[in-house]
Amino acid sequence: MADEGESSSTSDLAMRGGGVVIGSSDGWLVTADDRGALRMANPATGSHADLSPITTLPFLSSSCSGNWFCLDVHSFLQIRTYTLTAAQMRQRFYRKVVLSSSSPPPPGSNTYAAMLLTDRHVGAPAFSTAADPSWRMAPSPDGVEDSIYHCGRFVSITYAGHVEAWRRDTGTGEFTSEAAAPRLDYANKLLRRKYLAAAPDGGQLMAVLKHSKEQEEEEGYGSSRGCKVTRVFFKVLVLDQASGRWEEAAEDIIGGAALFVGVNASVCVPARERRGISAGRVYFTDDEVGGACMRHARGAGVGHQRSSYDGEPADDTELQEAGVYSLKTGKVERIAGEHPRWPPPAWFTPSFP
Questions:
Q1: Contact assessment for residue 1 and residue 49, using Cβ atoms and an 8 Å cutoff
Q2: How far is CA 335 from CA 16, 197, 270, 331, in A?
Q3: What's the rounded mean pLDDT across residues 255-269?
Q4: Closest CA to 154 of 208, 205, 199, 93
Q5: Which residues, in sequence order, are bridge partners of residue 123?
Q6: What's residue 321's pLDDT?
Q7: Per DSSP, what are the bridge partners of residue 269?
Q8: Contacts of residue 210, Cβ cutoff 8 Å, sequence gap at least 6
Q9: When comparing pLDDT for 312 and 244, which is higher?
Q10: Closest Cα partner for 304 from 209, 190, 223?
């Protein structure tokens, strides 16, 4: 990580170069710009720094003055070599960056670490630390879907539901994983995404499951009645340490807490003394950066309702907007105000030294 010095700018620093937020940890935002560069900034303090160039990752090289990236990982992941433009890196290679709680590191510290989650077709994560800033890819046969920094280590969940903790070998610098909780054996064809979070009291591990389902709109008037719409709903599972099993959490189990999920962060916070945040809710955003980018490039908006008889796909406005899901009522409410759909909104928890 290279320091860039002092600056009074805040959010503009994170967004320069068309930056898209792909990580939010303890007050720090991580962005990917249209040149494929990864940066971090604290909007509350103005601190900022560059993460190591992605070209320090073995198997990846740039060409044409950094306009193209070539990924040659057939010996590692058994997938073919392919190339991406610099702007496509945040659409088809990066998914999320998770920072350790000591970011950025104080001078002389070797405790800083970052975990890069790659898009599903790659799946394997990469790690960078203060002691070894070059990105190192680590094996993950199932592909890592989400991760958090929990109890001093990175904890992740794979697309197959395996929950793993990652440890760095101080001798080789390589990261390897081991089981951290029972496999989340949850098969549901409506499941779209899995997130990890930790409860604010005691750090109990939680899994947040995002589902979507097409249905015909029963309310409304005229042409709106009978339209097919995609509805979003969530289930929250809590790891019971005593039984070693995942248990479904009702609204009263998460108590006075609220959950925030999205491609950039998944966090559980106490709702008390936080104006505008309601307990027993899941706050969510569009978590498909690639899809949001393509809609932006086409100039396509959301909210167009389609007839259930015209053969077109369902209106998926609810998937693409920031919303609030009530675990008690099972309904979604829009977050008041206008929110940009590109770049996708990001959750941010202010942090001061």
A1: yes
A2: 26, 22, 19, 13
A3: 89
A4: 205
A5: none
A6: 79
A7: 258
A8: 191, 192, 193, 194, 195, 232, 234, 261, 284, 287
A9: 244
A10: 223
255 φψ region: left (φ > 0), alpha (ψ -120 to 50), beta (else):
left
Q: What is the pLDDT of residues 115-154, one digit of tens each?
A: 999 998 889 999 999 888 999 999 999 999 999 999 889 9
H/E stretch holding 90 reads helix 89-92
The two three-digit tokens of residue 263, written as one number? 């491609």
What does the pLDDT read at residue 107?
45
Q: Rounded distance, CA 267 to CA 297, Å?
A: 30
Residue owning tokens 């009530």: 326
Q: Cα(193)–Cα(235) distance, rounded to whole angstroms?
A: 11
CB 34 within 8 A of CB 86: yes
User: How far apart are alpha carbons 125 and 156 in whole angstroms?
Assistant: 10
Return the SS3 of 275. Answer: coil
- Token couple for 115: 């975990």
How much is the CA Rg of the chain, to the nearest whole Å?
20
Name residue, tokens 């494929």: 36
Give the angle subtended at the CA of 292 by the CAs of 321 and 328, to the nearest 5°.
25
Cα distances (Å, whole numbers) of residue 214 to 4, 44, 231, 274 = 48, 40, 6, 34
> What pLDDT, on a 0 to 100 scale, did the predictor assign at position 77?
57
SS3 341: coil
**Do residues 129 and 103 lie in contact, with contact meaning Cβ atoms separated by under 8 Å?**
no
Contact of 50 with 38, CB cutoff 8 Å: yes
96: pLDDT confidence band, cut at 50, 70 and 90? very high
DSSP symbols for 300-322: --S-----TTS-PPPB-HHHHS-
